[in-house]
Every structure is written in C-alpha cells, then in structure tokens.
Amino acid sequence: MPLLDHFRGPLSEDWPWDGFHANWATKMADLLNAGLLPPDYHAISLIKRGGQVEIDVASFQRPSASDGGAGVATAAWAPPQPAAVIPIDFPEEELFEVQIRRRLGGSQLRAAIELVSPANKDRPASRRTFATKCASYLAQGVSVVLIDVVTERLANLHAELLQLLQVNGVPPWQSPTDLYAIAYQVLRADGNPGLEMWPETLALGAPLPTLPLWLQPGFSVPLRLEESYRAACVALRMPV
Known about the structure:
By secondary structure, this protein is α+β, with helices and mostly antiparallel strands. The protein has helices at 11-14, 17-36, 124-139, 157-164, 225-235; strands at 41-48, 95-103, 107-115, 143-148, 180-189, 192-201, 210-216, 219-224. The protein contains 5 helices and 8 strands.
C-alpha cells in the first residue's frame, strides 16, 4: 500500500487529513487490541483539535444545606496587584494519539503513538510543546512512536526532541524525504538513562514499515503501520 499525500489536492479535497488521521489512529488501536497486546493491556485513540480547553484541577463551590444555598460569609482578602502583566500566546495543542495502557493496580500508560499534525510544526512554540510532551512521556518510562507524514510543513520534530533532552555530540537523524517514523525507548543502566531509537524513512508511493512498540524493557510488539494504514484507506473508501 503506497503512502499517499493527505495534505494536498486532489486527495485532501475529498478526504481531509484530520479525518484520515483520526481514522488511522483508531485502526492502529483496533489492530493492537485484536491480539497483538497481552490480555492486561489495551490501546485507545485520543483526538483533540486546537482551541479546546482541558481542566486538570478545578475549584467548586457547593451550597450548604443549612443556608438554603447561600454561601457562608468569609473574610475578604485582597491580594496585591501583580508586579507585571505580560502578553502571552499559548500554542493550541493538536493531539492525534494512540495510548497503550496496562491494567495493573489501576490504568498505567505504557506507550504512546503520536501522529504529527501541521499545527505541531507551524511555529517554535508549537514544536516545543509537542517535543515537551514526548520528552515527558520518555522521562516517565513511557515509550513513544513518532509518525510524521505531513508534507505541507517542514520541521524536524525528532531534532526538537533531542535538543530538549539535551542530547549533545550526536547529530540528529534527518530523513532524506522529511517524512519518517521513529520508535523511542528509555533504558536505565546503573542509574543512567539511555535513549534507544529505531528510525525509519517514509516516502510517498512507498509501503510503510513495522516498528517496535515497547511495552516495557525487553518486551515489545510489532506496530504494523502498513496494515493499519491500509485498513484506514479501505474503511474511508479512498482510491488505493
């Protein structure tokens, strides 16, 4: 199954890239859940477009039964004025991700598959936000697979990630086509972490590779990009 250009016409006119990305992520999760993952693991696709807000910590006020819903009076406290007000433009994160979780005393994230979107590459703040998320996963022992098939914007997010991880002395790998898929795993030996990488060049018109999806050190399953990609194309009735 040849890799198609989902970001330019005529294909992008009838099959917008974000719709395909969402379906491809779901097909990856489906194939992993169909027998590749052990029984206590499961994969789920997560999609979030820019502009959405997620609340991690919130404060709520609950009416008291004794006051009929009126709040209890508390002493007012006026904080000092801020020392400065600085304009800031938060990048709107886009998420096309497959998470692999293990049910072991509660759900544990073990691996994440990241499909790069154009917004992840459009400006320095967006690229750093994306790289920071991947670096955070790796720091927690969560393996990462990065897939970049975006043809309309050029940016090496792999290099961005290595720079954030302060990997010095080793030139970052660069795909000759600017399209690529890379599997990452962090191993710790004698207390010192080491980053292992499996880079693959992707090319329009060429089949997709199989990468190792690491669930824990010494144990991986095959992530068959070709099989999931074909399943997404067929499901969406794309010309293949």
